[in-house]
Design brief:
8 helices, homodimer, Fructose-1,6-Bisphosphatase, Chain A, domain 1, alpha+beta, 2 domains, five-stranded mixed β-sheet, D-Maltodextrin-Binding Protein, domain 2, seven-stranded mixed β-sheet, 270 residues
């Protein structure tokens, strides 16, 4: 291992090893998740007692086992099981099912997220759709890779003005007090579509969506997405245009064409 | 051919023939649509000059050719090319891409819709997802059939109260003046998810969604869906609980558990 303790960038061979483990972790999560997808839930099950919870917990445990076996000193932060080795300079950030509503309703547009952070900076991120077999792999400073059975090529598209832009967010219900700001942005863009969670960011990286603005994201929601978006030519920041931080306010912007960042920030009041 | 001119129900062997042609039409549409899915569009293309339009028109022409070759005297009503044999007692109703925003943004949750109407009553309907390979086939009076690679079994689920229900609609932007009514319904249900168009009704037929309320639907949006939903144990009506009509007001309710129909109508002010 080189560099991680001092905060310098890891060497290329280390990165390749991290990516291999991240892909193995995503594979392990997918095996668990596919067993639960499209199982019909009783309508009156409590959230804590449901197959969703089982899938979420089982998948996170599977990912943690893969990572710990190879990198026992690394930190791991997951939505379900909290933090392990909190002070480690390299920390894995896991979200086994990003897009719980999509998963519960049987829509194959949720994703498993795996990221490796050095401080606040994601070194790599994977967006994996375990049902369709689509996977985006982003590494800081590298071109994003994508594979999947439905086609699609990596590269965000040129879209110089918001009036031409395809805007997306998971649900207008996520904004709370920020709903007015969202509405201003939505009013200025060409079209708006809903749904998608991490999958929508993957589609931005393929050139099908131009702007995503969301609120209330946790670090495990955005850490894996950032290198995928930036490695496809896009940008991802908070609502003020500043780099995303682990202790940030949860507001996130992603744009495919960097020219859209300034007008998006302005409309959101950042 | 038996019965269609008089308005009596067609014989079983006629229905089997109609279903075979409907499936062939959906196959033909899918071949066209898959060629265009995930092709990156220039952000500044006009809607009338885009690959979406090409896919829509090409797919509808392919479906019309299949149907006309076998049933030249039947009526055909499609979103793109209008009506043919308007006075025929049996009319095919086609929507090659239901879920244009999903198609444009690369989400595999749009669908091709094929229905056969006798008067206002759908005799059969197909919801086809040509990218994932999922297909729902509904026939009046029969149990809905479903096939696809991601699992799922036909049958809406028991959900006796709205408080337990999973609610869905394509976008809150579809309601216009009906937005307040939608909000009352959304406030009374357990959870709300957005996106999906016809695909969400397919998921209701698999027991993953309990209530869908939408507005501004055309006959080609709902005709294929109704037999799929009702053949899975659900109900589909207008916002007053009345049967859907070709010249109706575009407001649609689908419920998986028939017990949800009355409280849904009440909250929507029907």
């Amino acid at each position: 291992m080189t560099g991680d303790a001092a905060g310098a960038a890891p060497a290329d061979q280390d990165i390749a090893g991290f990516v291999a483990v991240a892909e193995a972790a995503a594979d392990a999560a997918g095996e668990v998740i596919r067993r639960y997808f499209r199982s019909v839930l009783d309508a009156d099950l409590k959230a804590d007692d449901s197959p969703v919870t089982d899938a979420d917990r089982g998948a996170e445990q599977a990912m943690r086992a893969v990572i710990s076996a190879t990198f026992p000193t690394h930190g791991i932060l997951g939505e379900e099981f909290g933090v392990q080795n909190a002070a480690a300079p390299l920390r894995w950030v896991l979200d086994p099912i990003d897009g719980t509503r999509a998963f519960i309703t049987g829509r194959p547009v949720f994703g498993s997220l795996v990221a490796l952070l050095q401080g606040d900076r994601p070194l790599l991120g994977i967006i994996d759709q375990p049902v369709t077999g689509e996977r985006w792999v982003g590494v800081a400073g590298q071109t994003t890779r994508f594979r999947g059975p439905f086609g699609g090529r990596v590269g965000s598209r040129a879209c110089p003005t918001l009036a031409q832009a395809e805007l997306s967010c998971t649900s207008p219900e996520m904004f709370g007090a920020d709903l007015e700001a969202w509405r201003k942005l939505s009013g200025a863009t060409g079209r708006t579509s809903f749904g998608g969670d991490c999958y929508a960011y993957g589609l931005l990286a393929l050139g099908h969506i131009d702007v995503i603005a969301e609120a209330d994201l946790k670090v495990w929601d955005w850490a894996a997405i950032l290198p995928v978006v930036e490695g496809a030519g896009g940008r991802m920041t908070d609502w003020h245009g500043a780099p995303l931080r682990v202790d940030g306010d949860g507001r996130v912007i992603a744009v495919g064409d960097p020219a859209l960042l300034a007008p998006t920030i302005e409309l959101l009041g950042g």
